[in-house]
Amino acid sequence: MKIGQMVRNSIPAILEYCETQDRAEIAGLQDPRYSKETFDINYPFCKPVEAIGETERVRFWTREHVVCGVAVRVTSQWFNPPTSNSLQLLNQYLEQRKIEVPFRATGDKVSFVRP
Question: Whole-model pTM?
Fold first, then answer.
């Protein structure tokens, strides 16, 4: 599985975590610096739809998600190893927050986990 697919599969769980466990986390996910440090990406994890400029639209997936009452789009700018550490960092992020997802990442490999 590529990192983009892993991220897309993680979005609902991450945003549910923001809604139910840590409402302040959504502010971090909208911060480019936090997103760089947390996921090694060059855009915020997500951004309010109304704040996405015309030239930025191509950097975010078109699907909108509502979290904490705000419609956001998630960045599509993810890269697989060895170009980026995003896969390892996303897995670490999920584990630290105990966010359950149906896959496991080890090294540069991702596999689905059966319940």
Answer: 0.88
